[in-house]
Model the fold of this input.
Amino acid sequence: AAGPVLPSQNATVKRIEEPGDTMKKALLLVGALLLAGAAYLTLWPVPIKAVRWNAPVAPGYSGPHAVNDRLAGLNIIPLGSEEGPEHILIGPDGMLYTTVASGNILRMRPDGSAIEVFANTGGRVLGFAFDAAGNLIAADAVKGLLSINPERRITVLTDQVGDDPIRYADAVVVARNGKIYFSDASTRFAPAAWSGTMATATLDVLEQSATGRILEYDPATKATRIVARGLSFANGVALSADEQTLFVVETGYYRVWKIPTKASDLDVSQANSGATVLFDNLPGYPDNLMRGADGRIWIGFTKPRSAVIDRLADKPFLRELTLRLPRSMWPIPKAYGHVFAFTEDGKVVADLQDPAGTYPDTVSVTETPDRLYIQSLHAKGIGWLPRP
Done:
């Protein structure tokens, strides 16, 4: 009888894979993926170096900011393909001027007709004012402090303080003596390097290194100096009636300051600095300041407070980790329209809200004898209400 057939010396023996081997490979793969994910979430470089701070408990919508719908149902002046009428003013010529995300400065009649491009700076103008000669003085987040004369010629007034560049010019006011005060929102992040103003603001507020400052430019001497520093995203600026005080928005800490115009390199983060807080622990992210009628000053909130963001205030590592997540997972607050007016002594005299957030990212209000124009970071038109 024939014996068993034996494999030849060169034959390959195929090993039968056991079910346990497949499970081990799967576990190893899952482990490798988890390790890679953990390494990414903890070690992947991010642009911020988050600073620990203590966020106050949000007050919610109560007291003078009790929920209402007075901002709902706005009339809209369409802007075509443009969006983001962040700052609005009536010029010396009686025309309405506004800045938009494209870099254009638009001019139109107050009813929205006869709209045209007045100028384009090649950057992004956020705030502007008119001086006594009728020049449009613009805080351009990319270019610095600019002057645009009635013939539309653009001149750079200043783009640095000494050897230090102005990275994020934001809001501006012109005093009766000709001096110009403006905010440099962050000395850490510049919109030109970080994909625009909104992304840059997000980085600065997440980091909370409080490098924002208020600057003064003197056209007589062409000198630029630091008035105050130590602000967590320095934003809106307004002058008191006697022009001895600047009202300044500190977006990242939900505050409004009163800072003497004569201050020099004042650090508001230090106790007894000479500056005082007018509003603290506001219910949203405050943005721009605009002078209204009868001594009023208007302010708007781009977004309401976020409980998640406030809980991350004393957890810098988790704030850095947030930037490694898909943007869809970021704790961005919901849309909520909200503006209010106050007097110089800190009394709230008007409060307008739209809980539905139909008109997005309300920045402030431009008040004229017959209308309230609502400024916005991202709206595709100018919202307005008849003036009460």
Notes: The CA atoms of residues 125 and 215 lie 17 Å apart. The chain has a mean pLDDT of 93. The chain has four helices and 27 strands.
